[in-house]
Write a structure and sequence with these properties.
Shape: globular
Largest sheet: 5 strands, antiparallel
Number of domains: 1
Order of helices and strands: EEEEHEEEHH
Oligomer: single chain
Strand content: over 45%
Number of strands: 7
Distance between the termini: 36 Å
Helix content: 25-40%
Structural class: alpha+beta
Number of helices: 3
Radius of gyration: 20 Å
């Protein structure tokens, strides 16, 4: 609540509901490519806690985390391993816990990387278009 005083006789009080912070759970997806990529396509799905004022800000924070945590390194066989951020495919409103904590991670191996990435982008677009409550009800 903000209280503004104007002169000696007028006091204005405002409550900003839009500033209420909420917890969201975002599913962030990465594609994992080892060496020249001549292997079954692999994807890592991570559920991350996001603290934000709105769904749109939570989605933006999820995207920023995904990009920030892209990684390239060499494995034990000295093959280059690339973790490439794909998108935020799900976003759910939650109660309270820790900002940015990884709650779940799973690696998927699929036959067709392009089809899987297309599926992830479709789900991400649904997140952007729907209200969080509608998304939760459809799962």
């Amino acid at each position: 609540m903000v209280v503004l005083k104007s002169g000696a006789s007028k006091i204005y009080c405002f409550t900003y509901n839009h500033s209420i912070m909420k917890w969201y759970l975002a599913k962030i997806l990465y594609q994992i490519v080892c060496g020249d990529g001549d292997h079954l396509a692999q994807f890592d799905e991570q559920l991350r806690l996001i603290y934000a004022n709105t769904k749109q800000l939570a989605l933006g924070k999820g995207f920023a985390i995904g990009k920030k945590e892209e990684e390239t390194f060499y494995n034990q066989k000295q093959q280059l391993v690339n973790w490439k951020f794909i998108n935020v495919s799900e976003l759910h409103s939650l109660s309270t816990t820790t900002d940015g904590a990884e709650e779940f991670s799973g690696i998927n191996e699929v036959d067709d990387a392009n089809t899987y990435c297309s599926f992830v982008h479709t789900k991400a677009n649904e997140v952007k278009k729907r209200k969080t409550e509608q998304l939760i009800n459809s799962i």
